[in-house]
């Protein structure tokens, strides 16, 4: 890949493509993460809510890769808010993973999933302050958020000491996040793109199939490369080794003209 890493505003680097483990059950996570590590991934993304941290951590330990050579992200559950609650959840996560520190820890969402859109501003501030403490203690190398819109980010910027290092959001061909991405860039927040394949919903689009042929690529490769071209960090997920390998084979660039065409595609998931 032309870009090996993104760099957070604190100087910490993060590999430019991560292996996502959302929707991978714990019993499958060991084999999937092992396949990812075997095929060159050094950035693994999980969450307490995924209920697979134990086998994600076991796969990393059993692969015998030096801890400093693998970047591990996990997340505070969306339903867990507050200072003490955040510290407790973090301790559960590093116990599950069997590690001494996390490379990146994120607030999974600004509201519990069952209360989407509800106002948890003060609770999020307290959670982030707890993460700042853990960061200052060296237990986390970088801290951030996930699924935060501009209105969710502003109170963190106003009331907390550390600007979030990352915001992990849904981003894929057809999902226009231009305003949010611009805001993040203005504040030196790295944007991570989860569901870069729209959980598979864009793979059958005729226009993507035709364009992928032009680049001698799969639709998945085109979609993941698009995320990188838009300066976002993709987190593709698969349990099939062939696709795990293909999803990192991105040694091509999409022309400006084709990027503009892709920008015009409407969100198939609306």
From TrEMBL:
Sequence ranges assigned to domain NADP-dependent oxidoreductase in this UniProt record: 17-266
InterPro entries (UniProt xref): AKR (IPR020471), Aldo/ket_reductase_CS (IPR018170), NAD(P)_OxRdtase_dom_sf (IPR036812), NADP_OxRdtase_dom (IPR023210)
Pfam families recorded: Aldo_ket_red (PF00248)
Gene Ontology MF: a single term: oxidoreductase activity, acting on the CH-OH group of donors, NAD or NADP as acceptor
Site (described: Lowers pKa of active site Tyr): 75
Keywords for this protein: NADP, Oxidoreductase
Protein name per UniProt: 2,5-diketo-D-gluconic acid reductase
CDD domains: AKR_AKR1-5-like
Active site: 50
Taxon lineage: Bacteria, Bacillati, Bacillota, Bacilli, Lactobacillales
The keyword DNA repair belongs to this UniProt entry's keyword annotation: no
Protein family: Belongs to the aldo/keto reductase family.
Entries under SUPFAM superfamilies matching the protein: NAD(P)-linked oxidoreductase
Residues binding substrate: 108
């Amino acid at each position: 890949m032309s870009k090996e890493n993104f760099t957070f505003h604190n100087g910490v680097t993060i590999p430019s493509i991560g292996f996502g483990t959302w929707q991978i059950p714990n019993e499958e996570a060991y084999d999937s993460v092992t396949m990812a590590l075997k095929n060159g991934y050094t950035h693994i993304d999980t969450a307490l809510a995924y209920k697979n941290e134990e086998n994600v951590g076991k796969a990393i330990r059993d692969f015998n890769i030096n801890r400093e050579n693998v970047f591990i992200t996990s997340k505070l559950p969306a339903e867990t808010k507050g200072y003490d609650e955040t510290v407790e959840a973090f301790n559960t996560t590093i116990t599950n993973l069997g590690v001494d520190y996390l490379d990146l820890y994120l607030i999974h969402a600004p509201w519990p999933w069952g209360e989407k859109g509800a106002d948890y501003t003060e609770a999020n501030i307290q959670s982030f302050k707890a993460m700042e403490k853990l960061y200052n203690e060296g237990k986390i190398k970088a801290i951030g958020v996930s699924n935060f819109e501009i209105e969710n980010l502003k109170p963190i910027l106003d009331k907390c000491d550390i600007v979030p290092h990352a915001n992990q959001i849904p981003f894929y061909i057809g999902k226009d996040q231009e305003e949010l991405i611009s805001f993040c860039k203005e504040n030196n927040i790295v944007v991570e793109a989860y569901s870069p394949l729209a959980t598979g919903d864009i793979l059958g689009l005729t226009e993507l199939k035709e364009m992928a042929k032009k680049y001698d690529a799969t639709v998945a490769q085109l979609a993941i490369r698009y995320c990188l071209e838009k300066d976002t960090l993709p987190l593709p997920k698969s349990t099939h080794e062939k696709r795990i390998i293909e999803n990192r084979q991105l040694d091509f660039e999409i022309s400006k003209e084709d990027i503009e065409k892709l920008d015009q595609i409407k969100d198939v998931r609306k």
